Amino acid sequence: MLGRVGSLIVLTGLYVTSIILMTGLRPIHIVRQTVAAFRASVQRIREWKLKRRMQRADIKGQLEISQRELVKQQRSIERQLKRKGAPVPEGPATSMPIDELANRPKPNIVDTTALPSEPTRKKPSLAELRRGEKKSEGLPGMSSPTWDAENYTRPGLDLLDEHDVEGRVAVDPTELERIQQTLIDTLGQFGIAVAAGDITRGPTITRYEVYPAKGVRVDKIVSLERDLARATRAERINILAPIPGKDTVGIELANSRKVKVTLRELMQSADWTETKAKLPIALGKDVYGKTIIADLAQMPHLLVAGTTGSGKSVCINALVASMLFRFTPEELRFIMIDPKVVEMQVYNDLPHLIIPVVTDPKKVLLALRHVIVEMENRYKIFAKTGVRNITGFNAQPAKKTQKE
Questions:
Q1: In the chain, which end has fewer C-beta atoms inside a 10 angstrom radius, N or C?
Q2: What's the whole-model pTM score?
Q3: For the domain with range 132-164+260-359, which CATH number is right: 3.40.190.10, 3.40.50.300, 3.40.50.10490, 1.10.760.10?
Q4: Tens of pLDDT along 334-350?
C-alpha cells in the first residue's frame, strides 16, 4: 500500500522511536552535542593557528596578537551578555599600543602666567602715589570738559595698575604631571586608554591634553566629566573633545589659585599694539596666554550679562578704557546712558562725550534721536561720495584744495 519507499520511511521512524524509548536519548540532545563538537574542533583549529603565529612573530608582534585576541574575547562576552539581557560591565582599559606611544610627541608643560625675567619693582609709597595723582590731574583732556585738539595727548599706560607680581609664582611641574596621571588612571578605570599630552596653565584654568587610543570614542570621555571632577577634586571642569585643530582631547580644570590679568598687561602686549581692528577692545587672555582682542566695529550689538557681582561693570569699564587709551576725542565720541545713575558718573568730565552722561529716562529719547540724526547725515554723505560704509569713505584720498 505504501510501496517500497514508504515502507522504508515507516520502518526507519519506528526504529529511531524504539531506540529513543529504550536509551532515553532525545534528538535535540544529539543536535546540541554535534554542534558542540563542531565548535570545539573549530576552537582547536584557531588555537593551533594562533600558536603557530605566535611562534613566528617577534615580541612586538606577539603583544599585538594577544591584544587583538583579548578584544575579540571581550566582544564575544559582551554579545552573550546582551542576548541574555544582563548589564555589560566595563573592565579596566588596556594600555596604549607600543607603536602608538612611539609616535606621540613628548609632552610639554607651558606656564603662561609666569612673568618675563625682569627686576621686581617695589610697591610705590604714598608720597609717590600723590605725586602721580597731581600729575594726572594736569593731563589735558582728562579732567576738563574743554580740550585742545592740537595739544591733546592720549593718557599713558602708567596710569594703570602694574602686573600682579605676588600671584605670578611658577607652579611645580610635578604637581601638574600628578594631576594629569590622575586623569589618565581615572579614564583607565572606565575602559578608556589614553596617553599623556601637553599641559598648559592659564590665568584661571589649566588644560590637560590626552591622546585617545585608536577606536576610543571621544563622546565616552565627555560622559565621564563628573567622575573626572570627583577624582581631581576640581572646582570646575570642561572637556573639549577634540580640541579644534588637534587630535587630542582637552580637559580643562579650574585653578585653585587664580592669576589677575591687568588691563595694562593686555595693552602692553604685541597682540594689542599690532592689531588691525578698527575699534579694538581688550577682553582678557586665553589659556595659551594670548591676548583676546575683539573689534567693536564688527559687532552691531553687544550684550554683557551675568549674575550679581560677576564683573559686568568692570567689563564695561575695561571696554571703555580700551578705546580711551587708543583714540582722541577727534577720532571717537561717546554717548553714555546710565539708568543706574551711579555707574558712569566718573566719565562725565571726558572730552570724548558729546553730551553729559544721561541718567534721566525722559532724556534718553533725545540722546538717541541725536544718534539717529548723525546716522542719517552719514548715509547722505555716503550716497554723495558713492561708498557703502564708513570704511570705504575713510579709504578715499583727501580732496586737494585750490591752493594746493
A1: N
A2: 0.59
A3: 3.40.50.300
A4: 999 998 888 888 898 88
